[in-house]
């Protein structure tokens, strides 16, 4: 007699996506089980030892604003922190922290283990259970593990990462395992295919880890963290996380390195054609870099600690699938690595995933109600991308169980919205990584205002506490009030002001000006105006930051807001699921095919599908009016 | 993203023909307000936003410098009692095709957007004006017109113009990708010293676009050929010269000085060499507003021309007006025609050369011929010598042959203007010391605007360019 259990939601996989999904469901009061092939690998970081970075830092902030865990967890376990791009505009400032990998994993596991309503289960899920509904659609009813246990549930969230039918390649040697030699999940794919899900194969890779004692840091440049550490989470008190930080190190490849690589390309599984999966262009292996950018004399190599209690060092910038002997020879040409000893070899990994066009923007499968998915399974790459989708998939699985409306973020309110819209709307041919250039309205989507953009939604969903929400409302009021005050306070062209301006290297006034106008001057700013701003009250630095950005970049911000208005109009024009594109006259053939394939939810989404022209959109708009009036 | 509802749209509502009369239609929330801003009633007091619906008003359309463009009748129809069920204004123009296009351009500058093909009808439908049974017909209209617009613009763009736009876009895309890759991977790619480089590049892009825009002036097609401009003071015989070359009475020739008030464009074929002829208004001091515009434009054409034909009335001595014209020849290829050689001559080649040397720092390739434009059939007309001279200059490689099929379509012009505006914003951001990520916002707009001309979108271009041109980290 097999084991049978009844729960609300099952989450398959306990990586960064799975953890967020499971926590969201459990926190919303649903009985949740999270499955993993190894409890010791919960929230594992199998590649780079950091969280955040350009645009990924934005994702973590947004996640936090909605009630996710990643921000809080990295605040507990980071060993170095840096705000990137500070010399550039506020929209592209981005936080990145080096993590103590083991600590990160342990801390997240602790959160999961102590979460009410959540049960952790070590088991390989090998089959999904479903039934056919009256309208011939599929509906999830549960899942089955390898040992035959059955879990009946109302929703399943798939977060299988790189484990499905995984194989690792290191030169000529191939092992059928997941990352870090962990057990692969070889059975679920068949069940998914049987349900009509189309699978595909992607590839990614990771560089070698080295023994710290074998490296000569005197030949490298030291990379320090920021003096004042900024937390990821809006709920973390900045003062509570100031601490001594670990260093990273920078060195470079050279012509000798490149020569060794070129001479051994025939032994690289990618160049020898053994790897069938599609790899990401944004983190090319060192082989790729040397071949594609032959003119570059050197490439940067970042040596980063994997944690405080290990000697392993991550070799950023040199991922590779060359054989072991070639790896060692190539690494040893790099200054500081002459005597390096490799602890873990670099390898490439291939895994099964889906083309996310099979999903709705809620991350539920279009044809299978109750089945959600997030993370690398959806064809993305990166811990932050995974966690963001995991959270949304978890929230929406809960919403479906609770019969509430799904949370769908759009491109104008979040990077998470951009990420998901891109995944479900575009033909992605490689693991998808977030980039700031993918966000059209990035001046509005700053990491500093993620709370102002999204906390309210998190509160409405039920993942943000009353206390956190009250703090947000107060912050909003303070910002508004201060901006109004600065706009309404004039200073005259009097002696004191002119003297102040001259001293500050700014031009003197011809007529009176408001304090807001003065803040707009490049050489001045909020802090600089303190001597002439007599009525100023002390405000939290997070409030001052918003006030200054809103005033200084007002012109640009207004322009983007106008673009957003235009954009939203098209997003609001929903396309009924019952619409038959074959009935729409005059659509071009290509557009008709693409629209049928993607089944966009709105005219806005339709317009972003490649192959759908503005003329097709016009046709569609007119037809929709007709449709609404007649059906 | 286009907005199909609220924006005010405008287009020429009647077929373009030489009848000289046509309607520019404006529809949308701000239609009346927009037209009011460029309409002046004869009394100067009438305000269109205050008039009753379904009334007609007589007056002028003026440009931003208050120069009169055309004398018009303007009908105001308030929502919902109009074809589109939106506020609608129709401007009845009288000044012919060129003026009508100019009126439309003025409307667009005042804040309207050029209507898509079939858009008035579409709005009429969406606003419930047209019966639903006609929905499919409307779709067909939109569709066929889009196809038509696409195919006609594609065929128009086979030549160098599309190459030019493509190469401009490529250059802009490279800059965007460079900035973006540095933002995404600041540890690998640095932007130090980049703003200065970009400023220089952007100025270059702007110049290219301005050149294209200049060819679109007046929405007038400039065809393949050597850009040739006829200048001279009033009544020196410029128009007669053009007519003789053309063999038809195209330019109005009278004995009243100042007859050609603007400029006439013609293409003539001279034994296989195409000349793009522009006959300009006589250059002289004038108080007449319209004529003044003509004179200014003539000067502008002269600056841009590949070849200047300067017609001098040899029966009179050089006067102040000629003194104003001669500097235009600075460094130019020019042929000076001592016209009216049949009358008693007061100017000789020698005296003319002396004057030229005195005024010009650098005389380009200047030749002097004697002509008489009274009777083209006369052996003394000098026409054969003129043709011979132009031919020789061309075959000796002294004249640049303009192969660019130039911007003709108002839609293209609008897109170019948008691109130019965006680039100017980039320039300003650089001057203001804004951070680098702001540049790529407007560069991307410029890239998108140029894409509209050749029917290409932005899509994944930037991301693809980043990966193909810049080595990203990890």
Molecular structure report:
The complex is a heterodimer of chains A (631) and B (474). Chain A is built from 19 helices and 24 strands. The mean pLDDT of chain A is 93. Chain B folds into 3 domains: 9-115, Probable tRNA modification gtpase trme, domain 1 (Gyrase A, domain 2, 2-Layer Sandwich), CATH 3.30.1360.120; 159-216 and 408-469, Four Helix Bundle (Hemerythrin (Met), subunit A); 225-395, Rossmann fold (3-Layer(aba) Sandwich). Chain B has helices spanning 31-38, 96-109, 119-126, 135-156, 160-184, 194-215, 238-246, 289-304, 320-325, 349-359, 383-395, 410-431, 436-454, 461-469; strands spanning 9-12, 22-27, 39-41, 55-62, 68-77, 88-93, 113-114, 226-231, 263-270, 273-280, 307-313, 334-339, 366-370. In chain B, the strands form 2 sheets. Chain B has a 7-stranded mixed β-sheet. In chain B, strands 9-10-8-11-12-13 form a 6-stranded mixed β-sheet. Classes of the chains: A alpha+beta (631), B alpha/beta (474).
- Looking at this structure, what is the CATH superfamily of the largest domain in chain B? P-loop containing nucleotide triphosphate hydrolases
Helix fraction bin of chain B: 40-55%
CATH architecture of the largest domain in chain B: 3-Layer(aba) Sandwich
Biggest interface, chains and residues, is: A-B, 57 and 49 residues
Number of domains of chain A: 4
Question: How many β-strand stretches of chain A?
Answer: 24
Shape of chain B: globular
Rg of chain B, alpha carbons: 26 Å
Cα distance spanning the termini of chain A: 52 Å
Q: Given the structure, what is the number of helices of chain A?
A: 19
Proportion in β-strands of chain B: 15-25%
Structural category of chain A: alpha+beta
What is the oligomeric state here? Answer: heterodimer
How many domains of chain B? The number is 3
Amount of beta strand of chain A: 15-25%
Unreliable parts of chain B: 144-159, 217-224, 248-262, 401-408
Rough shape of chain A?
globular
| CATH architecture title of the largest domain in chain A | 3-Layer(bba) Sandwich
CATH topology of the largest domain in chain A: FAD/NAD(P)-binding domain
């Amino acid at each position: 007699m097999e084991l049978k259990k009844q729960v609300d939601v099952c989450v398959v996989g306990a990586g960064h996506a799975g953890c967020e999904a499971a926590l969201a469901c459990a926190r919303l009061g649903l009985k949740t089980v999270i499955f993993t092939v190894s409890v010791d690998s919960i929230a594992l970081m199998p590649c780079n030892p950091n969280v955040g970075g350009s645009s990924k830092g934005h994702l973590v902030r947004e996640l936090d604003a909605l009630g996710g865990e990643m921000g809080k967890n990295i605040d507990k376990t980071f060993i170095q922190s840096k705000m990137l791009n500070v010399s550039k505009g506020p929209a592209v400032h981005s936080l990145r922290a080096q993590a103590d990998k083991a600590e990160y994993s342990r801390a997240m596991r602790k959160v999961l283990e102590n979460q009410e309503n959540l049960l952790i289960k070590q088991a390989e899920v090998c089959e999904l259970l479903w039934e056919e509904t009256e309208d011939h659609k599929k509906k999830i009813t549960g899942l089955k593990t390898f040992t035959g246990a059955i879990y009946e549930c109302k929703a399943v969230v798939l977060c299988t990462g790189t484990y499905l039918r995984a194989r690792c390649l290191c030169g000529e040697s191939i092992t059928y395992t997941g990352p870090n030699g962990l057990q692969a999940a070889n059975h679920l794919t068949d069940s998914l295919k049987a349900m009509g899900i189309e699978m595909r194969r992607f590839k990614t890779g990771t560089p070698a880890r080295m023994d710290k004692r074998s490296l000569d840091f005197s030949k490298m440049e030291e990379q320090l963290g920021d003096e004042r550490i900024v937390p990821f989470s809006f709920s973390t008190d900045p003062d509570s996380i100031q601490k001594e930080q670990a260093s990273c190190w920078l060195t470079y490849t050279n012509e000798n390195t490149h020569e060794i690589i070129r001479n051994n390309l025939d032994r690289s599984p990618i160049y020898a054609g053994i790897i069938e999966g599609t790899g990401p262009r944004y983190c090319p292996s060192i082989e790729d870099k040397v071949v594609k950018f032959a003119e570059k004399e050197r490439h940067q190599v970042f040596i980063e600690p994997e944690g405080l209690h290990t000697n392993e060092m991550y070799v950023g910038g040199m991922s590779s699938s060359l054989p072991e002997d070639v790896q060692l020879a190539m690494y040893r040409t790099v200054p500081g690595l002459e005597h390096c000893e490799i602890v873990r070899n670099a390898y490439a990994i291939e895994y099964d995933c889906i083309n996310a066009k099979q999903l709705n923007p809620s991350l539920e499968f279009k044809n299978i109600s109750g089945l959600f998915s997030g993370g690398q399974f959806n064809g993305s790459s990166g811990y932050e991308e995974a966690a963001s989708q995991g959270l949304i998939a978890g929230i929406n699985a809960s919403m479906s169980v609770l019969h509430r409306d799904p949370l769908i973020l759009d491109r104008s309110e979040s990077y998470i919205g951009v990420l998901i819209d891109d995944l479900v709307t575009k033909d992605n041919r490689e693991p998808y990584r977030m980039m700031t250039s993918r966000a059209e309205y990035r001046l509005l989507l700053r990491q500093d205002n993620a709370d102002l953009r999204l906390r309210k939604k998190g509160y409405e969903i039920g993942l943000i506490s009353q206390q956190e929400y009250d703090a947000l409302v107060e912050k909003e009021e303070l910002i508004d009030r201060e901006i109004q005050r600065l706009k309404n306070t004039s200073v005259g062209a009097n002696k004191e002001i002119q003297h102040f301006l001259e001293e500050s290297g700014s031009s003197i006034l011809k007529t009176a000006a408001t304090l807001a106008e003065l803040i707009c001057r490049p050489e001045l700013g909020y802090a600089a105006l303190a001597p002439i701003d007599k009525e100023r009250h002390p405000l939290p630095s997070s409030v001052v930051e918003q006030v200054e950005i809103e005033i200084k970049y007002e012109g640009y911000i207004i322009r983007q807001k106008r673009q957003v208005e235009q954009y939203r109009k098209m997003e609001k024009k929903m396309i009924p699921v019952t619409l038959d594109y074959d009935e729409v006259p005059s659509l071009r053939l290509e557009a008709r095919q693409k629209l049928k394939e993607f089944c966009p939810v709105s005219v806005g989404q339709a317009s972003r599908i490649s192959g759908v022209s503005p003329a097709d959109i016009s046709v569609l708009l007119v037809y929709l009016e007709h449709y609404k009036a007649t059906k | 993203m286009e907005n199909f509802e609220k924006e005010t749209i405008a287009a020429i509502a009647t077929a373009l023909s030489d009848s000289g009369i046509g309607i520019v239609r404006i529809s949308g929330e701000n239609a009346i307000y927009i037209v009011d801003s460029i309409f002046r009633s004869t009394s100067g007091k009438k305000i269109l936003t205050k008039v009753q619906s379904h009334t007609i008003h007589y007056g002028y359309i003026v440009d931003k410098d208050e120069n009169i463009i055309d004398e018009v009748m303007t009908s105001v129809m308030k929502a919902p009692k109009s074809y589109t069920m939106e506020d609608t204004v129709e401007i009845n123009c009288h000044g012919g095709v060129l003026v009508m296009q100019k009126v439309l351009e003025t409307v667009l500058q005042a804040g309207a957007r050029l209507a898509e093909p079939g858009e008035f009808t579409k709005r009429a439908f969406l606003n419930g004006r047209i019966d639903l049974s006609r929905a499919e017909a409307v779709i067909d209209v939109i569709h066929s017109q889009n196809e038509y617009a696409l195919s006609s613009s594609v065929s128009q763009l086979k030549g160098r113009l599309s190459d030019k736009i493509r190469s401009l876009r490529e250059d802009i895309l490279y800059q965007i990708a460079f900035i973006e890759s540095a933002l995404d991977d600041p540890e690998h790619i640095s932007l130090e010293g980049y703003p200065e480089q970009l400023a220089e590049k952007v100025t270059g892009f702007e110049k290219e676009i301005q050149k294209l825009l200049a060819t679109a002036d007046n929405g007038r097609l400039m065809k393949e050929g050597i850009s040739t401009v006829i200048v001279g003071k009033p009544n020196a015989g410029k128009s007669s010269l053009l007519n003789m070359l053309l063999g038809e009475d195209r330019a109005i020739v009278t004995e009243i000085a100042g007859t050609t008030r603007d400029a006439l464009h013609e293409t003539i074929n001279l034994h296989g060499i195409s000349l793009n002829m522009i006959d300009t208004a006589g250059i002289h001091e004038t108080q007449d507003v319209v004529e003044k515009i003509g004179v200014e434009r003539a000067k502008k054409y002269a600056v841009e021309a590949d070849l200047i034909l300067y017609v001098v009335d040899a029966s009179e001595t050089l006067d102040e007006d000629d003194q104003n014209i001669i500097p235009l020849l600075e460094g130019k290829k020019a042929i000076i025609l001592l016209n009216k050689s049949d009358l008693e001559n007061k100017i000789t080649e020698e005296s003319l050369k002396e004057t030229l040397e005195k005024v010009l720092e650098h005389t380009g390739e200047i030749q002097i011929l004697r002509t008489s434009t009274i009777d083209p059939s006369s052996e003394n007309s000098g026409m054969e010598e003129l043709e011979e001279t132009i031919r020789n200059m061309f075959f000796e490689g002294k004249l640049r042959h303009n192969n660019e099929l130039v911007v003709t379509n108002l839609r293209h012009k609008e897109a170019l203007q948008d691109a130019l505006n965006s680039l100017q914003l980039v320039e300003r951001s650089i001057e203001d010391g804004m951070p680098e990520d702001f540049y790529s916002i407007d560069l991307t707009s410029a890239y998108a605007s140029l894409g509209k001309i050749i029917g290409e979108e932005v899509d994944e271009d930037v991301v693809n360019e980043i990966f193909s041109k810049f080595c990203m980290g990890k």
